[in-house]
């Protein structure tokens, strides 16, 4: 069980005053999140404050690794970032300072090829599953057991629906005897309820401005470290992390 801090995602710069958008901001924010109890960091490097880009991974990884030595660092390979399968593969192949792991969305058509490229580069894989169909595709992959973990990421905003979606995904993994760790997270309205579900099921989870800006009581968090500190408090309430 770990708590991963997800610093920014694809959120626009007006989403929150403390949203980190430069390599320096992500390094500073990441260090504060680690101090607050985050075990790992996940972030989306930006070529400009308004645009994600895989070309910014080298610079950002260098900055964050310097600020957070020994912390596992992860990025996204989402197809929307470059908007072109060939460009996505070329950017990943060109990384000189790769992350420790990268998330791959199984809903995307090029996911198996991206996963194989990451394996060739000895970069860990978070297999991102948002639906039962994603899970079914994942369990049919030849190298399914070689991933770092399974990332169950639910977008439904109604909690009962979100919980059913998560449980359906996990049931498919269990039927297929997938023995990889699970990290469950929600989005906006389901961020805290699914974090609590992860705590109860003893799965890992994540928290941060990528997934939402509100605390459990509905107030706006000051920043990512504030969200992490609250998540750590909840996880430790019953002797968790």
Please give a structural write-up.
There is one protein chain. By secondary structure, this protein is an alpha/beta fold. The chain has one domain (3-236): Alpha-Beta Barrel (TIM Barrel). The chain has helices at 23-36, 57-67, 79-82, 85-93, 111-120, 132-139, 159-175, 191-201, 224-236, and strands at 3-6, 40-42, 46-48, 51-52, 72-76, 101-105, 124-129, 149-153, 182-185, 204-207. The longest helix is centred in the C-terminal third of the chain and has 17 residues, at 159-175. This is 3-keto-5-aminohexanoate cleavage protein. GO terms for molecular function: 3-keto-5-aminohexanoate cleavage activity. It comes from Gluconacetobacter tumulisoli.
Supply the CATH superfamily name: Aldolase class I
Q: Please trace the helix and strand order, writing H or E for each element.
A: EHEEEHEHHEHEHEHEHEH
Oligomeric state of shown chains:
single chain
C-alpha termini separation: 6 Å
CATH topology: TIM Barrel
Structural class by sheet pairing and helices: alpha/beta
Approximate strand percentage: 15-25%
CATH top level is: Alpha Beta
Secondary structure: helix percent = 40-55%
Tell me, briefly, the overall form. Answer: globular
The residue-averaged pLDDT reads: 96
How many domains? The number is 1
State the total count of DSSP E strands.
10
The number of helical segments is: 9
Give a quick account of the main beta sheet: strands, pairing sense, barrel closure. Answer: 8 strands, parallel, barrel
Which stretches are poorly predicted, pLDDT < 50 over at least 5 residues? none
CATH architecture: Alpha-Beta Barrel
Side by side, the strands of the main sheet go 1-2-5-6-7-8-9-10
Rg (C-alpha, Å): 17 Å
